[in-house]
Amino acid sequence: MARQELHRHVEITDDERTVAAAEVTSEGPGGTAWASLRAESGHIPPGRRASLVDAVLDLPEVQQSAHLKVVFPLGDGETLQRLQARCPDVRTHAAGASAITEVNLPSRGPAAHQAGRRGKQATVQISP
Fold first, then answer.
1. Domain tally, the chain
2. Residue-level pLDDT, tens digit, the chain, 128 residues
3. Alpha helix (H) ranges present in the chain?
4. pTM beyond 0.85
5. Residue 89 sits in a domain of what CATH number?
6. Residue 58 located in a structural domain
7. Structural domain boundaries enclosing 64
8. Is 114 inside a domain boundary?
9. What is the dihedral of CA 127, 111, 103, 98, to 10 degrees?
10. Element at 127 (helix H, strand E)
């Protein structure tokens, strides 16, 4: 029987403007999830890219996965730092203008990552 992949679209909005988004696909529990992250060009308030990483890592289908592969623009240090803070085993390499990060996901629930946030909060929208 073929596995059915699950797809999600995640957006981070700031003052009703989408500033970062992700497309997430998962092959199911114990498998691999894939995420493609992108941010609007220009100034984005600090923490919005980290909020996108948190939203992706907190999706139930990602938490049930054993591995995560993330593609994001090369040079996006905030995204990389957040992945490294949330996941114990992160490997990254460049591919053209993108960074590809492979993560072995911890087998526990969401980390207590909310405590360090300050200032105005972004809105997270998740759709199938």
1. 1
2. 455 678 999 999 988 889 999 999 999 889 999 999 999 988 889 999 999 999 999 999 999 999 999 999 999 999 999 999 999 889 999 999 999 999 998 765 444 444 344 445 567 777 66
3. 48-57, 60-63, 77-86
4. no
5. 3.40.630.30
6. yes
7. 7-107
8. no
9. 60
10. strand 123-127
